[in-house]
């Protein structure tokens, strides 16, 4: 009597953040932290000075949202921390090649940290798989940047609340909505691509 055996392909592993797609280990963590800091610094160089405010229009927030979701809260915090420390110590990491901390928009850089951590926490619960959930999460994370940046601007430039909002928040709201929209398309799209690749590999396994 013969018995036929069939091997059922294992279901694709459910990753909580995009970085977990890569092989686990200390090298992954270190590489992710360094690469995330580099991405935030590089993308943040795309900045447009505005004549009516000391705060430039920068793509840095877009990079922060993406890095936060991709790395998760712990690695994202380390990555943004590395970025900020490098800039404070003199590396031209901030928008326009700036460094140090004694300038009007430094508070927004400090606000990158809670924004990235929040995006990482949302990603770990699967909220970066949905377009609308990602969009709302990105908007919420962006408010954390303002929650730190606007008070810093007010103190540094000796502004009242209304002036700080007019110079440090209102001009950037439309841009942040666009950035949130970009992230809300990119992240679910990357997850869809990851699932497609995983399913393709699984379906391609031979059975016996």
Automatic annotation (TrEMBL):
Glycoprotein: present as a keyword of the record?
Answer: no
Keywords in alphabetical order: Cell membrane, Membrane, Transmembrane, Transmembrane helix, Transport
Q: What's the protein here called?
A: Biotin transporter
Record InterPro entries? BioY (IPR003784)
A Gene Ontology molecular function term of the record: biotin transmembrane transporter activity
Does the record bear Chloroplast in its keywords? Answer: no
Ranges annotated as spanning the membrane: 29-48, 101-123, 135-159, 165-191
